Amino acid sequence: MNSWIENPEGGRDRGLRALGRAWVEVLVRPRRFFANGVAPGDQAPGLTFAAAVAAAFTLGWVVTDPTVVPTIAESTVLSAAVVVLLVTALAAPVGLHLTAAIATVSLVIASLEVDGGLSFRERGGVSETVQVVAYASAPMALAGPPFPVLRVACGGYATLLLLVGVRTIHGTSPLRTLLAGVPAATFGYGVGYRVVAAVRTLLG
Questions:
Q1: Is residue 1 part of a domain?
Q2: Does 115 fall in a domain?
Q3: What burial letters (b/e) apply to 114-151, b meaning 16+ CB within 10 Å?
Q4: Which domain, by its residues, includes 175?
C-alpha cells in the first residue's frame, strides 16, 4: 500500500504531473479513466491521490476560514500547517481505508449471486476498490471553502464518480452499484468532507 509496484499493469504514472493529469481525467472522462487507470495491486498512486485531495481540501478550508484552526502552536500559520500535515499523513489514509472497507463489504452484500449473476470473486478486487474510492474523491479538492452549496455540489459529483467507478471496475448492475456505492460515499465524502453538515445547513 505504501510503495509503488514496478509493473503497474496499466495503472497510474508517477510524479506531480501524472497526479494533476489523473485529477483532470477522472473529472472529465471518468469511465475511460477507471477502465484504463485502475490496476490490480497498484494502490500507492491512489493513496497519494487521496492524500493530495485531502490536503487541498484542508488548505482551502483553513485559508478561507482561519477560525477553524485549533491552537496548536503560537503562530496561526504554523498551527494551520500542522493541521494540513496531520490530515494529509494520517486522516487521509485512515479515511481511505475505512471508506474502501465499507465499499468492499457493501459490494460483497450487493454482489450475492442472484439469477445467475457474477459473484464478487469474479469481479475487481479490493485493491481496485481502494483506487476507485480514492480517485472518485477528486471533486473534494475544490470543496475546502466553507460554502455549503459548493461542498454539496462537489460531494454529489464525487458520489457520481464513485458509482461510475464501481460499475466500471466491478461490472455491477445499476441497483447493486447504488447499494455498494452510496454507503461508502456517505461516509467518505459525506462525513469525512462534511458534505452531510453542508446539506443540514442548507436545509436548516
A1: no
A2: yes
A3: eeeeeebeebbebbbbbbbbbbbbbbbbbbbebebebb
A4: 16-203
